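thoughts on these tokens:
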Amino acid sequence: MEAPKETVLEVSITSNKLAAYICAPPSLTKIDQEDVYRALEAAGVVYGVKPEAIQSFSANPSEEPVLVAEGLPPQPGEDEHVELFFVYDEVEPDGEPGTERVDFRETSKIVSVEAGTVLAVKHPARPGKEGKGVTGEALPPLLPKQIALRAGKGAEIQEEGTKAVALVNGRPWVKETAATCTVGVDPLLVHKEDVSIKSGNIRFKGDVKILGDVCEAMEVWATGNVEVMGLVTRATVQSGGRLIVHRGVINSSLKAGRHFPGAKKIAFLLQDLKANLQLLNQALVQLKETKHFEQADFGRVVVALLDTRFKEIRPLVKNAIKQIASFRNQHFPQEIVELAKSLSCLAGLNPLTESSFKELLDNLSAAVQTLQQEETGTADVRIHSAIMSNIQSSGNVHVLSQGCVSTVINAGGSVVVKGSFKGGEIFCEGNAEIQELGSDLGAPPVVRVGSRSYIKVGKAFPGAIIQVGHRRLILNQQMGSFKARLNKEGELEII
């Protein structure tokens, strides 16, 4: 039975205007398509009409709603979002056969940044595209969400609120809410347990405070100050600033400060060498433009120049090698180590080639740059006591309680030892003050200071060696309190 002209078809439109449905009264077997179109038009449906659906509905009317029109949904935009530039580098042990060996001491997940590092960037929102409803009206997209980038302690916001930058060295952090993202940098890392295989080595750009011990074979490295509340045993601790160990140091290596004692002296020497080698290199560049150079051996050309126009270079090289070698028990920066190897090509120990000469120039520039970097802040070492250890500081060294046994101390400043100093050596550019020097047993200790400094001892045993500048004295008897320094004539005097 066809629908009579007065038949009313029911059209429904979803609330979001993206779909239109139609249904017919029961008992109808066929409906004219024109009636369907008129019903849709009467309901305001003018967009996204589906002819196939209307044809199917007309042939088989249904009292259940049938989808006959679909609109175009609005395309969402992109919300403002903050991109973080610090992540945790997780190192997971891999037990699969044939995989690379994992150093379980290097499993720490602590992340640190240097001052000036970009921590986060806020990316702008991107608007969406309008849609179109079945009624023909425009459907606006949702507005993108806004987020405020804020700076916590240790950070600042730049570039009109779109970039967060670290103001200090330390550990970056983030706190996020629905509408804000706050980033900052904590300059102090507090490690609440021992530094062990469980925690992994600590490498941090900032200050570090360790509430436990630093255990065997572990390393602590920080650009700032380091404070260890417990023991340091068979371990390595390096700080860019002050280094404090409240309990003992046993068979370990401590280093405070970027520079090493004697760095200034070597720096001046290397600067002179660099200037002369640059002139030599300029002469080689000019010779390369001649035809004769192409047929000559590079090493022989350089040797000829060293014997004629650049006679001052060989003594500088020899002196540089001697000076570096004279600083025994030093933990040199890697740049100095590499330079020492490269200098051998001009000393006749290794072949002199164009490649080795270029490597020498590069390593020399790197070493000079390292030595010219200024030391920032105080780089003193303060410890309770030390046994069979190596202590190096670009500042002062203070042993506060039970002294040292078989320990080597290098200091750019002064050294003060409360208690006894048995065996081992002290080298410092400042003054040395030792409560008790040497013992009746064991190897005699050596104390050496600069020519303008003094050595002050409360009690000394026979065999102990003291040296001020180039003047050395081996004590042949037990002595009470004395002070050793050079007089106006440059002779060592005991006061």
